[in-house]
Amino acid sequence: MTDRIREKLQILADAAKYDVSCSSSGSNRKNKNQGLGNTGNGICHSYTEDGRCVSLLKILFSNVCIFDCSYCVSRRSNDVKRAAFTVQEVVDLTINFYRRNYIEGLFLSSGIFKSADFTMERMLQVVKKLRLEENFNGYIHLKTIHGASQEIITEAGLYVDRMSINLEMPTEVGLKQFAPEKSHAEVQKDLGIVRDRLIQLTDERRVIQHVPKFVPAGQTTQMVVGAHQEKDKDIILMADHHYKVYQLKRVYFSGYIPINEQEKMLPVVGSAPPLLRENRLYQSDWLMRFYGFDAQEIVNDQHPNLDLDIDPKLSWALRNPEHFPVDIQHADYRMILRVPGIGVQSAKKIVQARRFGQIHIDQLKRMGIAYNRAQYFIRCADTPKFKKEQQANQIRQHILQSGQSKYQKQLSPQLGFGF
Amino acid sequence: MSTYHFDQSMTGLLSCVYRSFQFKDFDVKLASNNSQASLFDECIEVASNDEHAERVWRGLKQKITAESLRSFYYCFLSEQEEAHQHLFNFCIYVFKNTHSVDRNYAHADILAVSQWAKQVGREKHRMEAFVRFKKCQDELFLSLVQPDFNVLPLIERHFRNRYQDQRWLIYDERRNFGIYYDLTAVHQVEMDVDQIDHAHKVGHSQSFSVELDDDELLYDQLWKDYFKSINIEARKNIKLHVQYVPKRYWRYMNEKTI
Predict the structure, then answer these.
(1) Which of the residues A73, A75, A245, B105 has the least number of beta carbons within 10 Å of its own beta carbon?
(2) What percent of chain B has pLDDT over 70?
(3) Tell me, what DSSP letter sits at residue B37?
């Protein structure tokens, strides 16, 4: 018995690890009637050796799948051990891990066995049992199964905190090639169902006092990066579109890790995942969500790919020298935020502090801005009066020379040939 | 320049502030009661006085925002002499100004207090994450910890809200006190750590000498299995891993071995 559950957990956790979403924030479920658990700002309870956080018990319900997507470990034609949990097993694991403060909640996904609705129905049973029988108020992230019916999706929404369904490939062409049974239209339909229901409930809340909670932490999606020949522009514009149209909370990017030996169109097994590119994409994602950048400012037809040597904020600044230098004393918060080397926290501190007097270089440094980088783009009280204006490529060289990228060795963009 | 010796309590610290205004003596160095007296400075023992402290605290409440007051408390819990000094200077600066200055981050002490508060906040968050309960035979969920700063008072609320239907105890080995929830309220308790965790001074892996629940071993093992299974070998990045989970916490986390 013990060995069987251990084996199942190993197989089904191993298969689930390529889903990158692990956040447990955005919901505010309270612990009611002396029950178990609550949700808040999200906590990462541990970190694996690859440096990714462990917040939720991330498992597949079953890795039996009728689909044959070539980038996926659990695809039909792959020869791997198959396993499936029972509803009670998932519930016991979740509750017992949660009680020991190992996790924030459950992330349940699954391969599609029999049919989409049949699979989704089973997953819904787990969720309902946790919420209704165990009075569990921790975080639950449920994967929407590709092609599940509207009824079952809306019912699941009543019990979970977050739902997600993966776009998988940033372009429709890529998806057709590697996952012929899936389509972006289907994914968008499912995202649309939850969005529309959310809007409807928000409207009802204006008239009715008690409206049930519905997917309080919103929806997310994920794209595989580096499997097909997509450009960074495709990825970022796709993400931007989904933020705007489907009001997603997050779009995750997952550098493709080669696992398929048969498919010749995919990167060879053993080649290094594009970690640096993934990092630049996340930086761009942050720029769009927290720094007020528009997707077109980061990538456009002239610059379809992100610069791997420097971060997207710096490369925007170098491309648009007309906005600089920024006067720290008088400029808008919006503009201060756009200076390379100044983050949200420092920008806020600067705006607070300048009401009391002139801001000097040493104060900026103490507040935590990366002055090495910011110095070319700002003017403050004691900036030398006759500072020479430098060309964009000079600044770029200075910055690149002044520091060694911590990614240089570890996340080299060089192709690994796997021999 | 004079040196104030106080008992390291919040009351003591605020009493120092009171005294410095009473005697218009603002150039002050703080020191703990048992530290060595300096040769040239004037040394003054400041006794903790509830009334004086209360008065200063009320003053602070009026002068600074709730957020700064919170930072003030967090910073105090760091238990560092340097932080105490910043808190003292913070008070002097705030009280000497008629208008509100607690957000002037260009001022060294204001900035330092907010930075110390941030550090303590991080430690609080880490404790909320890294506490690992072991289920004992009498259904008590027990966790031993050794946080850098005194954060148990800060995490109490989080754990009380979260685990309402199980008895739990989080015990700080360094400061030798714990918080215990008995299904109705949280109490502060003291016990003999050596009895439960005899190697805590040596720092080797945790070896509990408590009777554990029958299921405890299974779930402990499952968690270790899970932790191994979700690692992606191709993305291995130990430097980042250690940055997120510093080694000083490994002893208390069952998925790591030291």
Answers:
(1) A245
(2) 100
(3) P
pLDDT given at position A386: 75
B118 in contact with A, Cβ within 8 Å: no
Residue A264, pLDDT score? 80
Q: How far is the C-alpha of A379 from the C-alpha of A62, rounded, in Å?
A: 58
B125 touches chain A (CB under 8 A): yes
Taking residues B38-62, what's their average pLDDT?
91
> What is the C-alpha end-to-end distance of chain A, expressed in Å?
41
- Asked if residue B117 lies in contact with residue B64, where contact means CB atoms within 8 angstroms, the answer is no
Q: Is A414 on the interface with B (CB under 8 A)?
A: no
Using a CB-CB cut-off of 8 Å, the residues of chain A touching B239 are: 410
Nearest to B240 among A17, A51, A255 (CB): A51
Which residues 6+ apart lie within 8 Å of A301 measured at CB? A233
pLDDT at A151 over 70: yes
CATH number belonging to the domain at A2-267, selected among 3.40.50.720, 3.30.470.20, 3.20.20.70, 3.90.1180.10: 3.20.20.70
CA of B37, closest CA in chain A: separation in Å? 32
Q: Look at residue B258 and tell me if it is in a domain.
A: no
CB contact under 8 A, A97 and B166: no
User: Would you call A102 an interface residue with chain B, using a CB distance cutoff of 8 Å?
Assistant: yes
Provide the 10 A C-beta neighbour count for residue A83.
18
CB atoms within 10 A of CB B215: 12
Cross-chain residue pair A50–B231, CB shorter than 8 Å: yes
Predicted local distance difference test score (pLDDT) of residue A267: 86
Helix (H, G, I), strand (E, B) or coil at A58: strand
* Domain ranges, residue B114: 2-123
Entry pTM: 0.91
Is it the case that residue A175 has pLDDT exceeding 50? yes
Number of folded domains in chain B? 2
B212, β-bridge pairs: B136
Looking up tokens 């720290």 gives: A328
Above 60 in pLDDT, residue A419?
A: no
Q: Which residues contact B128 (CB under 8 A, 6 or more apart)?
A: A43, B155, B158, B159
- B179: which chain A residues are within 8 Å (Cβ-Cβ)? none
Of B158, B166, B243, the CB nearest to A99: B166
The pLDDT score that the predictor gives to residue A390 is: 84
Euclidean distance between CA atoms A41 and A58, whole angstroms: 18
CB-based contact (8 Å) between B99 and chain A?
no
Question: Measuring CA to CA, which residue among A160, A154, A5, A14 is closest to residue A86?
Answer: A5
